[in-house]
Amino acid sequence: MQVYDLAKLQELRIFHLGDNRLIHGYYACDMLSWAMGHIREDGIVLITMISNINVIAVATLMGCAAIIFREGVSPTSEMIAKAKEEGLSLFGGEKDALLIYEGIKAYETCL
């Protein structure tokens, strides 16, 4: 699955569509230092509810494919601008991390 496939999910809102990177997995975390220590490969989609510019920095540093903001959280305009510079896609959803992930996995099953 690739990032642009996430854009096809009706339950996800697109804040910015960056590069169409290959997705290697998903990681839900709201503690950036923890995410930095546990994301082990490029292509991970970070699912979080942190709306802070540091999320973009961590996702870029860790080679994340995209960020999904959960439970109605939206990125700031500063975050969207930085994501555009980095080619990083930003999505948002109203559901919690588990339900977002389940929706993605259900979609992947249909591919």
Word description of this protein:
There is one protein chain. This protein is globular. Helix 3 packs parallel to helix 4 (77-86). It has a 5-stranded mixed beta sheet. Helix 2 links the parallel strand 2 and strand 3 (44-48). Helix content is 40%, strand content 21%. The chain has helices at residues 3-6, 32-38, 53-61, 77-86, 97-110, and strands at residues 12-16, 25-28, 44-48, 66-69, 89-93. The model has no long low-confidence stretch (mean pLDDT 96). The protein has 111 residues and is of the alpha/beta class. It has a single domain (3-110), classed as Udp-n-acetylmuramoylalanyl-d-glutamate--2,6- Diaminopimelate Ligase, Chain: A, domain 1 (3-Layer(aba) Sandwich), CATH 3.40.1390.
Keywords:
single chain; 111 residues; alpha/beta; Udp-n-acetylmuramoylalanyl-d-glutamate--2,6- Diaminopimelate Ligase, Chain: A, domain 1; 5-stranded mixed beta sheet; 40% helix; globular
Number of domains: 1
- Name the structural class: alpha/beta
The count of strands amounts to 5
Task: Enumerate the spans where pLDDT stays under 50 for 5 or more consecutive residues.
Answer: none
What would you report as the Rg, rounded to the nearest angstrom? 12 Å
Walk across the major sheet and give the strand order: 1-5-4-3-2
Report the mean per-residue pLDDT as an integer.
96
